[in-house]
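Protein modeling request. Please complete all fields; requests missing the sequence field cannot be processed.
Requester role: graduate student
Desired output: 3D structure, token encoding
Chains: 1
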Amino acid sequence: LPSPSPSPLFGYNSPMRVILSPLLAFLPVGPVAAAAASFVTTRPSTRSASAARTSLGAAPQRLEENVEGVLYVNDRCINCAACSNFAPETFARSSTDSSHVVYSQPDPSDASGNLARARAALAACPVAAIRVENTAGKNHKNKGDRLSEEDERLAKLLAINVKSNGLEVPFPRPLIDRGDGGGGGARTSAVHYLGHHNEKSFGATPYLVTGMDGRGASVSVMVDAPKCTPSSIRAVLSLTGPSGPDYLLLTHIDDTAGHLQWRETFPNLKRIFHGGDLGRYNWLNDESLEDAEVLLSGTTGEDAPEGQLFKMWTLDGEDVQDLRQRRRRGDDDGDSDSDGVGGD
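Delivered output (344 residues):
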């Protein structure tokens, strides 16, 4: 695997990618845009030596660089940086750059801020390497050695089970949420984190983008897939309603894990994938990707309009440039707004 990025700002799961990736890859009201050349740096190494030892059967161990306190990271960490994306004030890379650790315990009095972000990191971790010390666990190791009252309170608040503390589940978590009032009513679009990152996708961040198409109907696109579990399905349904998402945009061959499970869960789901990642680039040897409902092809090319950095398609895979040219010639009599492309 590639070595870690030297810059945390532009790392694979960095805040810049987290914010820009869904916006560059998918426009909520209009065409899909795909970069001709990647602006994202190489994916960091996602398997430390200690994690490799853990996978061979050794019990997970708390990493020594964690600060004292109930929240910690163990040596199952694959260094995907999901935790520091959600809670950078709590998690950071270790001094060896081989894992992440807790460098500051969350504030139990900040339930909607620091604490909520730490809970999101805990729920997003693809390998459950973020752990919470509890009284029973500590007593098991050191009989009679109890947590302090403050630590017990923090441990309870960090629990993801809502029955334990009454707090909301961490996901879905809004990244962008806006509504634009118009003459025909409000048009809204939003991007939500889905959490439940998948180890088989190296911990890449999944999103759900919702918006309106050119006809005014709601449309939802899942950008890469979280683990397909009851809790992640509930997170998706809370945003889409019972029909589930309309599309699943698979941005890269590395980030396709679980696509078949989501397709089986929602039979009307259309998977969008670029054929350039098939053939010799399909290192996963997942031939089912060849059956994606929307299989894109082509790159920006020399005939692209001046200044156009992206190849653009409608959500159903039609080349936007070709569509616009046909409309100029009068070869296409469709509604100019029906697919979100709009006028010239």
